[in-house]
Write a structure and sequence with these properties.
Number of helices: 16
Distance between the termini: 145 Å
Strand content: 15-25%
Number of strands: 19
Largest sheet: 7 strands, mixed
């Protein structure tokens, strides 16, 4: 075909031009990362390097130097989540006339390891060092937790450093170049921060355990476990502790937040007016446990899942501010500050925020603020608990006072009711005795025998002694009788009927039981009746002296008259009702003893014990 014959040379020319252009671009890419010029700077924070992605994870350094095509990159490295090997290439050129010593430093420790290979400008191998995580600090290229490599350049010398990084979950790193003195000084600041951080951590855990010993509340144990477990992850990030399996460090986060939910539940107990609050906490606990399962199954899914769950805790903080007690708002503020700090590393990871000390150590910075605020919160909790205890005690005292007042009112009402019943009872008994006395008085008119009439009068006086007692009980409304008042009422009729006989009484003003008073009323009735009947036939100045008093141990009743007296043997051998009644009544008194002397009138003394009643 004539047309094809003319077009074919043109097509071949275009293919040749394309190949030439492609080779030129590849050469350009290979050499695009310019050498870093080393002068007298203390630190170089921004420079170019190049990287190569080893999908096979099996390339040797010689193959990389000869065959790998490196892609230009700045010194902040973010590969995203990948479980592979990356090679980085940095060219250093001494532009001075002096020997220069520099440290090529990496900012991150959580990878499977770093291997440094040093070549001259002619790609001749010089030496290599490793900074694997399974090596001690003194076995690494630089004795430091962070991966670093020291390069010495003579005047105007150029060297190439290859860095092999085996990624645990992707590479988020920043390389910097330092003078040795500047590097160690900078790392000292970083180490000081972590020393301060772990000091705060130790103090917070110790403080929580002391509060547990003081209060015996599980909230302090939950918080201590939360801090200890969460800081497994912080230790991994700090570089002071290495974990051969990175999932161990990541697993610490959901485990820690599971205990954090228990801590929150105890902290907010009975202080949140949100009805579904416990359901929310239980849901979060389940989600964190589920996160552990997802971590085992798919690490990349776990990163996304745990990020969403943790940042949804903002809802928990807002809920507590909305429905919680005011003194607990500090919890919500601490939680929100902590969650904001947790967002700094992911935002840096996605290159939304720059890589710096704050964004790189956001977890530790936020945890520091959280520990300080939560320690204040827990310390304030003691004050709140004391105030609640005082308030509860005041409510208990108020309740007891109210109960006592109600009980007192009830007792007073019942006492008043019983008093009325008591008075009504004695009033009716007194009336019954009066009816009996009236019947006896009517019956007395028909009696003609003198002895029968005397016996009738004695019986009437006995009934009257008991009736008088019921009358006093009715008037006083008191179950106990005043001995002095009763005796005065009892003796009054005898004094009126016998004005020529002097009856003196010295009675202590004291209350005694009904049984005791009625006993003495009957005894006294028998004694006076006998004295009036037999004692004063030949006595010109008849007297009766009655005394009742209380000494330190017992009551003493004394009855005396100045009558003629009588022979006790006759009295003891007689079967008269009066003396028998007196003996029977004396036996009813507690621990009673009786002494009788009849030589110069009657002198009777009764000693007994009895409970005193002040009402």
């Amino acid at each position: 075909m004539p047309i094809l014959k003319h077009i074919k040379p043109f097509i071949n020319s275009m293919l040749y031009l394309s190949k030439t252009t492609l080779l030129f671009l590849l050469l350009l890419l290979h050499t695009a990362a310019s050498a870093v010029e080393i002068g007298d700077e203390a630190v170089i924070n921004n420079f170019d390097l190049a990287y190569f992605y080893d999908e096979s994870n099996a390339m040797h350094i010689d193959d990389v130097v000869r065959q790998a095509v490196f892609t230009p990159l700045n010194n902040t490295i973010n590969t995203g989540p990948r479980f592979d090997t990356f090679w980085f290439k940095v060219t250093l050129s001494n532009t001075t006339d002096r020997i220069q010593s520099r440290i090529l430093a990496c900012s991150e420790t959580y990878t499977s390891g770093y291997d440094f290979y040093e070549y001259n400008s002619d790609n001749q191998f010089l030496k290599s060092f490793s900074s694997r995580n399974d090596l001690n600090a003194d076995e690494r290229a630089i004795e430091d937790p962070y991966p670093a490599y020291k390069v010495i350049l003579v005047a105007h010398e150029t060297k190439v450093v290859y860095l092999k990084v085996r990624s645990g979950f992707g590479i988020l790193n920043r390389m910097t170049i330092h003078k040795p003195t500047h590097y160690f000084r900078t790392n000292t600041y970083q180490n000081y921060f972590f020393i301060f951080y772990f000091g705060i951590l130790f103090s917070s855990i110790s403080f929580s355990l002391l509060l547990y010993i003081y209060n015996r509340e599980p909230i302090y144990i939950y918080y201590s476990i939360y801090l200890a477990v969460y800081n497994v992850w912080v230790l991994l990030q700090s570089g002071f502790v290495e974990f051969p399996v990175f999932q161990i460090g990541f697993a610490a986060v959901p485990i820690a937040f599971t205990f954090f939910m228990s801590f929150t539940r105890e902290l907010r107990r009975n202080e949140i007016k949100f009805p579904l609050f416990n359901t929310v906490l239980n849901t979060y606990t389940f989600l964190f446990i589920l996160g552990l399962i997802i971590l085992i199954i798919d690490f990349h899914l776990y990163i996304l899942y745990s990020t969403l769950v943790i940042f949804s805790l903002f809802f928990l903080g807002v809920t507590i501010i909305r429905y919680g007690a005011k003194h607990l708002h500090l919890y919500s503020y601490a939680l929100m500050i902590f969650l904001v700090s947790l967002s700094l590393p992911p935002l840096m990871y996605h290159e939304i925020l720059p890589y710096n000390f704050v964004t790189r150590n956001g977890n530790a910075l936020g945890s520091t603020i959280e520990m300080i605020l939560f320690s204040i919160l827990l310390a304030n909790r003691i004050k709140v608990l004391k105030q609640e205890k005082v308030h509860i005690n005041e409510e208990i005292v108020t309740l007891k006072t109210r109960q006592n007042e109600l009980l007192q009112t009830k007792v007073e009402e019942q006492t008043k009711e019983l008093k009325l019943l008591f008075q009504e009872l004695h009033h009716r008994v007194k009336n019954n005795f009066q009816f009996i006395l009236t019947f006896l008085w009517v019956q007395k008119k028909s009696i003609r025998d003198k002895e029968a009439l005397e016996a009738f009068d004695v019986t009437t006086k006995r009934i009257n002694a008991i009736s008088l007692l019921h009358e006093l009980l009715y008037k006083e409304g008191n179950p106990h009788v005043n001995m002095k008042k009763y005796m005065e009422e009892f003796l009054y009729p005898f004094k009126e009927e016998n004005p020529d006989i002097v009856i003196e009484n010295h009675i202590t003003d004291i209350n005694l039981s009904f049984d005791t008073v009625v006993t003495f009323g009957l005894i006294l009735n028998e004694l006076i009746t006998n004295s009036l009947k037999y004692a004063f036939d030949s006595i010109s100045d008849p007297r009766i002296n009655i005394d009742f008093h209380l000494n330190e141990k017992a009551y003493i009743f004394t009855y005396k008259d100045n009558g003629v007296g009588f022979d006790q043997n006759i009295l003891l051998s007689s079967t008269g009702l009066g003396y028998e009644l007196i003996k029977e009544f004396v036996h009813k008194l507690d621990s009673a003893t009786m002494e009788l002397n009849t030589n110069n009138g009657v002198d009777l003394s009764i000693t007994f014990t009895c409970e005193k009643h002040n009402d």
